[in-house]
Design goal:
Membrane topology: Multi-pass membrane protein
Number of strands: 13
Number of helices: 26
Keywords: Cell membrane, Membrane, Transmembrane, Transmembrane helix
Main location: membrane
Distance between the termini: 8 Å
Structural class: alpha+beta
CATH topology of the domain at 7-40 and 197-341: Multidrug efflux transporter AcrB transmembrane fold
CATH class of the domain at 7-40 and 197-341: Mainly Alpha
Strand content: 5-15%
CATH superfamily of the domain at 7-40 and 197-341: Multidrug efflux transporter AcrB transmembrane domain
Largest sheet: 5 strands, antiparallel
Protein name: RND transporter
GO cellular component, one term: plasma membrane
């Protein structure tokens, strides 16, 4: 007999040594978490994450080695938003100065400043230490501000700054993710209970997925010392880990259970699941990893970090499915189907073929061209809004006004525009030219003072580095960061700065800041998008050709997944670029999609959609390898895989939809985009478009080599066979001999039993197990 695939050999060892396999997996997860915690995270710095001119400005400023002190702004206003009582305001400001000066965390406190409109007083505070972890040290300052507010009726005391803003936003986001976890985990368990009807079977995929997330977080922390890590990586690992971890376990567990019910012994069922679903998991994981690798071509540190985290968690999920899952199934034995949930368990044991899926497939199999035109047309209509997609970086305007610190930022910007939207001008020149650079920047400030695009409530200060080589100055604008006015002020400033320093020899200048970063980041992604998309399409096409040895299958996979992604982008634009869904999803439309989302969404969707495509087409190919006619193979493959794909899709949609409830608009858009794409893929692509396309193609599905050229042949084990083209039954014994020569497993129940001597061939009864012998 030919050598078994690696997935089978690994599963066989794990099933034979379950405690060793389980112990090794627990040790692996523990070591990953320990090492990750021991070495700590190497976070992406501002200069590493910048692109374009804003990135260059950040690097120039960083080279000046300016001392970065966390600054806080204590804002005193009337509680009703009206005119400020000057006497009461001055008294409150004096108490703020007294309390803040007495704090050990405070280095200095400035004099109170009255706003130009007379409605606010500002007390500037400088904290000790650097900006790192300022949010953890700002607590006493916030308590002091609250005490002042409590002692002065009719006044509001807000604090906005390096530490307080980070603390307010991180607390809100942390609460959001805690709520998301509390919803998503029970929801996933509930869905799996419906799928399996047994508590243990439902719990295994969830526990395994959580262990994969833990191991991946530890490994990504180690990887951050090679590729610096963004703070969003852990969230993406959780999202991807729960999705693929549950999916891969579900594929494997459902197939093992199917084979046991068909009469296979427990070990045989595990081996068949390893050879079929295990192989599919490897292929699916490879396609996801290939897709995520495309993010490296974005040539941006944040995307490289997200790609690394996603690739790690997918690889760990594949490893878990191939190694520890067979051990768990072998150790649990038939206890995996206990304790049973009475009503749900009976539903999973319904005899015979489901009536739902054949009915849904009927249009695609009987009228393939009509079904293809109608279903593709519907998806194209959904995709149409994507043609009007607008991109922009998220800013303070996109934050929920339910967050207290965001409302405080609005009041600060209204009273002191120069503290809100700020452009940073950075100039680097030889130290001997320092006086010339200062003179050039002073002339630039005089020019901005006469222009309404810039703020005039305070005089900007020119900062000089210790070696006198780098000079920076912050120039404020009264416009919100995402407004046309802010963008116009940036364009004007970028035209004036080169003119101002043009006469300084060897001077290098750039304009940065939040507005500039958003503009440059969006432009950079638009330029890199074709390269990333091309890379993902090309490598996915090559991967599919190598797996299925069919150009037709590879090309159809690419086209169908592009169609699914386009439709999800259309839904995303329709929901978030308009206002009709604001009340439903609790957001304020900015008229645009977050600039980083389309690229990241495309890569993730392409990888996850290929999971389902590979799984379904593999089952169709299994039936075709047995000799099934095209329509019968499609019908058998999809009806056999529909339950698993639907269950996995419902789990994914549930997990992703929870992200649509978070406060941050980028996470709302990510959750809605992913949920919409998976739902469309499972409900339309796999039920109508794919079967209709494959039925229309007929034998061309396996072009150019044909199904025999794909490395298959007849069934792998004695039992069900299909009628030969001439209409004569193929003897079961001959099918068995051919299958043993070819070494392929045949899943049970794909076809009617063969007839031997005019009577149906008897199938093994459940509970009486035997191993097939050559």
């Amino acid at each position: 007999m030919p050598k078994k695939p690696a997935t089978v050999r690994i599963a066989r060892w794990s099933a034979a040594h379950p405690w060793s396999a389980i112990g090794l997996w627990i040790a692996f997860v523990a070591v990953c978490l320990f090492l990750g915690g021991a070495v700590g995270t190497n976070a992406i710095s501002d200069e590493e994450s910048g692109v374009g001119e804003s990135g260059r400005a950040g690097r120039i400023a960083h080279s000046g080695d300016f001392p970065e002190k966390p600054e806080e702004n204590v804002l005193i206003t009337a509680e009703d938003g009206g005119e400020l009582d000057r006497t009461a305001g001055q008294a409150a400001a004096a108490e703020v100065v007294r309390r803040m000066t007495a704090l050990a965390e405070v280095e200095s406190v400035g004099d109170p400043v009255l706003s130009p409109n007379g409605k606010a007083l500002l007390v500037p505070v400088t904290m000790k230490g650097d900006t790192e972890n300022a949010d953890r040290r700002v607590g006493p300052l916030l308590e002091a501000g609250t005490a002042v507010e409590d002692g002065h009726e009719g006044l509001r005391v807000d604090e906005v700054g390096t530490g307080s803003t980070a603390k307010g936003l991180s607390e809100t986001l942390g609460e959001d993710f805690e709520r998301a976890e509390l919803i998503s985990l029970p929801l996933t368990l509930l869905i799996l209970l419906v799928v399996f009807g047994a508590i243990t079977a439902a719990g295994v995929p969830v526990v395994l997925a959580l262990s994969c997330v833990g191991a991946a977080i530890g490994l990504s922390t180690l990887a951050s010392h090679v590729l610096p890590e963004t703070s969003a990586v852990s969230n993406v690992i959780l999202l991807m880990g729960m999705a693929v971890g549950v999916d891969y376990s579900l594929f494997y567990l459902k197939r093992e259970r199917e084979e046991r019910r068909a009469g296979k012994s427990h070990v045989d069922a595990i081996e068949i699941a390893a050879e079929t679903s295990g192989h599919t998991v490897v292929v699916s994981g490879t396609t996801v990893i290939v897709s995520m690798a495309g993010l490296y071509l974005a040539d941006e540190a944040t995307f490289a970090s997200l790609a690394t985290g996603s690739i790690i968690v997918v690889a760990v999920a594949v490893l878990a499915s191939l190694t520890v899952l067979p051990a768990l199934l072998a150790k649990l034995g038939r206890w995996v189907d206990k304790p049973k949930v009475p009503v749900l368990w009976r539903l999973t044991l319904r005899p015979g073929e489901s009536r739902v899926w054949p009915a849904l497939l009927h249009p695609a199999l009987s009228r393939p061209l009509t079904t293809l035109v109608v279903s593709v047309g519907a998806l194209l209509l959904l995709a149409a809004p994507a043609l009007g997609m607008k991109l922009k970086q998220p800013g303070s305007d996109d934050l929920s006004r339910d967050i207290p610190v965001v409302r405080a930022m609005d009041r600060l910007t209204e009273a002191f525009p120069s503290k809100g939207t700020v452009h940073q001008v950075a100039v680097r020149a030889p130290a001997g030219r320092a006086e010339e650079v200062k003179a050039a920047l002073e002339a630039l400030l005089e020019r901005t003072a006469d222009d309404g695009l810039f703020a005039h409530d305070s005089t900007p200060t020119i900062e000089e580095s210790a070696d006198r080589r780098v000079h920076t100055v912050d120039i404020g604008t009264p416009h919100r960061p995402e407004s046309d006015g802010a963008r116009e002020s940036l364009d004007v400033l970028r035209g004036w700065v080169p003119q101002a320093v043009n006469d300084v020899p060897d001077a290098e200048s750039a304009v940065g800041g939040k507005v500039a970063q958003g503009v440059d980041f969006t432009g950079h992604l638009e330029a890199r998008l074709p390269w990333v998309v091309g890379f993902v399409l090309l490598l996915t096409f090559v991967t599919m050709v190598l797996i299925f040895r069919s150009l037709a299958v590879a090309l159809s996979a690419i086209l169908l997944n592009l169609l699914s992604a386009a439709a999800s982008f259309g839904v995303l634009v329709a929901v978030f670029q308009h206002t009709w869904a604001e009340g439903l999803l609790a957001f304020t439309s900015s008229g645009a999609v977050v600039s980083w989302l389309p690229l990241f969404l495309f890569v993730v969707l392409f990888g996850l959609s290929m999971d389902y495509h590979v799984f379904v087409v593999s089952r169709i190919r299994e039936a075709a390898l047995e000799g099934a006619p095209v329509r019968a193979a499609i019908r058998a493959g999809i009806t056999r895989s529909a339950g698993v794909v639907t269950s996995a899709a419902i789990v994914m949609v549930g997990v992703f939809a929870v992200f649509g409830t978070l406060s941050m608009v980028e996470f709302k858009q990510l959750g809605v985009g992913l949920a919409a794409a998976i739902l469309l893929d499972a409900a339309i692509i796999r039920v109508y478009v794919l079967p209709a396309l494959m039925t229309a193609l007929g034998r061309w599905n396996w072009w150019p080599g044909g199904i025999s050229g794909s490395g298959g042949g007849a069934a792998a084990q004695p039992g069900p066979t299909w009628l030969l083209p001439e209409g004569r039954p193929q003897p079961a014994r001959l099918a068995s001999q051919q299958s043993h020569r070819q070494g392929a497993h045949q899943p049970a129940g794909l076809a009617p039993p063969a007839r031997e001597g005019g009577r149906p061939q008897q199938q093994p009864r459940p509970g009486r197990h035997r191993r097939d012998t050559p």
